[in-house]
Amino acid sequence: NAGVMQNPRHLVRRRGQEARLRCSPVKGHSHVYWYRQLPEEGLKFMVYLQKENIIDESGMPKERFSAEFPKEGPSILRIQQVVRGDSAAYFCASSLTGFLIEAFFGQGTRLTVV
Amino acid sequence: GIQVEQSPPDLILQEGANSTLRCNFSDSVNNLQWFHQNPWGQLINLFYIPSGTKQNGRLSATTVATERYSLLYISSSQTTDSGVYFCAVYTGTASKLTFGTGTRLQVTL
């Protein structure tokens, strides 16, 4: 859905650098979800945020990964000291009231670590 | 957590053929969606169908919630239907949408 905007679409980082992925939800949506898709695999839940709060980060790796959804501005997924295994597509979804209603995903950011 | 299995894992069709994709889930769900991931990686919403039957052009879907499965029908397939089809479910007890294993479809001329 064009309403959820992710940027950049493609990101190349060298091992050890930081990656910042941005997600602008549909206007008025206060729930944001990040998912990761490793090559040839399905989408795996990472983190669920509402404005200024992390609600569920059970799918987030314990180290190097963090996410925020500030009062103003997009949600940010930050990966520090990237490694080759972080190469994946990262998708963001937003909703008005959680997943009880239809969810729409952005076009994803494809991260390549070289 | 809930388990979501899709079958078949891979499917090759000739253009014009029909197909049925299946999604089985292990617990009651409040939401079920079908997505098409095209060869460029974009996720396209096909159906929001926690129960019942819906149709959209050559595609239709049926969810039988009491028996914990959903079916996606593709009729008169076209090469543009190629890609991976995912079902995803939401149970209400967890905050996330859980994706199935996917069916990779290739439609040939």
**Rg value of chain B:** 13 Å
**SS-based structural class of chain B?**
mainly beta
Beta-strand fraction estimate of chain B: over 45%
Q: Total helix count of chain A? A: 0
Find the biggest chain interface: A-B, 25 and 22 residues
* Residue share in β-strands of chain A: over 45%
- Write down the overall geometry of chain B: globular
- Using the alpha-carbon principal axes, give the shape of chain A: globular
Number of helices of chain B: 0
Secondary-structure content class of chain A: mainly beta
Instruction: Report low-confidence residues of chain A grouped into runs of 5 or more.
Output: none
Average pLDDT level of chain A? 93
Average pLDDT of chain B: 95
Characterize the quaternary organization of these chains: heterodimer
Termini separation of chain A (Å)? 30 Å
Low-confidence region ranges of chain B: none
Percent range for helical residues of chain A? under 10%
Largest sheet of chain A: 7 strands, mixed
Order of helices and strands of chain B: EEEEEEEEEEE
Description:
The complex is a heterodimer of chains A (114) and B (109). Chain A has 114 residues and is mostly beta strands. Chain A is 0% helix and 49% strand. Chain A has no helices and 11 strands. In chain A, strands 2, 4, 5, 6, 9, 10 and 11 form a 7-stranded mixed beta sheet that branches. In chain A, a hairpin with an 8-residue loop joins strand 9 (88-95) and strand 10 (104-105). The mean pLDDT of chain A is 93. With 109 residues, chain B is mainly β. In chain B, 0% of the residues lie in helices and 57% in strands. Chain B has strands at 4-7, 10-14, 19-25, 31-37, 43-48, 52-56, 59-64, 69-74, 83-90, 98-99, 103-108. In chain B, the strands form 2 sheets. In chain B, strands 2, 4, 5, 9, 10 and 11 form a 6-stranded mixed beta sheet that branches. In chain B, strands 1-3-8-7-6 form a 5-stranded antiparallel beta sheet, with no helix packed on it. Chain B is globular, with a radius of gyration of 13 Å. The A-B interface holds A 1, 33, 35, 42-45, 48, 55-56, 59, 89, 91, 93, 98-105, 107-108, 110 and B 30-31, 33, 35, 41-43, 45, 48, 86, 88, 90, 92, 94-102.
